[in-house]
Q: What sequence folds into this?
């Protein structure tokens, strides 16, 4: 009696390959941070008169402290620039390959300025 689908292992291999390929092509549109379980229950970051999230003018310019103050929502990239003759340290918060927030301050000092591009951060 002839087999209707041929070798079942070969069929399984073909289906697995096609499924894997289709899954990988869609990866660029998935927000992997939304799949992280801690983000399911974390409170959202908000802008208030005192600052952004838990960041305010007395927050040290340290990546771990800034990340924790923003509920670890972003991957940070650090950089430096000169403003009015002064060396400024900055942290760029990246999510889905886009810059969402930038924190400026004097190196080893405190936060001086915050720029927000993330539309998910709302004002209280």
A:
């Amino acid at each position: 009696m002839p087999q209707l689908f041929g070798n079942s292992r070969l069929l399984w291999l073909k289906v697995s390959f096609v499924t894997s390929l289709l899954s990988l092509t869609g990866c660029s549109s998935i927000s992997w941070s939304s799949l992280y379980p801690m983000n399911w229950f974390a409170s959202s970051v908000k802008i208030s008169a005192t600052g952004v999230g838990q960041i305010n003018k007395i927050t040290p310019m340290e990546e771990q402290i800034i990340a924790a103050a923003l509920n670890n929502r972003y991957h940070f990239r650090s950089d430096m620039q000169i403003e009015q003759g002064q060396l400024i340290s900055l942290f760029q918060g990246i999510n889905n390959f886009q810059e969402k927030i930038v924190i400026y301050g004097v190196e080893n000092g405190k936060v001086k300025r915050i720029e927000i591009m993330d539309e998910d951060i709302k004002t209280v």
